[in-house]
Amino acid sequence: MLLRHRLMYSASTLLVSCVLAGAAGHAAEPAAAPPPINSFFENPTFAGATLSPSARHLAARVARAGKGDALAVIDLANNTIKVVAGFTDSDVGPFNWVNDERLVFSAVNKDVAQGERRLGPGLFAVNRDGSAFRQLVDRVRGGRLLPMNTE
């Protein structure tokens, strides 16, 4: 019985020593600086990734400095990325694969407050290699049709 109490005492002493050593080790480490506040308001560099039907390609919105989000396609076999569509006056919005070759997407204005939409979204299509860009539905402002800007 005495041996059993000694073993339990030794085990509990060892456990307390380990916990205290771990706590002391964490207390000695300096706390990491919090991220700057503006990082919470930045647009993601890469968002909305979606696999093609064959899973050979990945489409995603990519941020471009001063130009808004564009649509890019990544060839997963070759590990190459190509921007296939974008606008100078708005961002690429929601997109979907039609088949393994073709994507459809809309345009959005992320810099405009909700309720202050300046342009309608329109609807566009493009091949995964950037060819055959087509405007399927016009973008409108106040009932007027606007020309498309693809730069």
What integer value in Å does the Rg equal? 27 Å
Structure class: alpha+beta
Give the strand content.
35-45%
SS element count, helices:
1
Q: Which strand order does the major sheet show? A: 1-2-3-4
Distance between the termini: 85 Å
Shape label: flat
The profile of the biggest β sheet is:
4 strands, antiparallel
How much helix, percentage-wise, in residues? 10-25%
- What's the SSE pattern? HEEEEEEEEEE
Low-confidence stretches: 1-12
Instruction: Tell me how many strands there are.
Output: 10
Q: What order do the helices and strands come in, and which of them pair?
A:
Blueprint lengths: L1 H27 L17 E6 L5 E8 L3 E8 L4 E6 L5 E7 L4 E7 L14 E5 L6 E4 L1 E3 L2 E3 L5
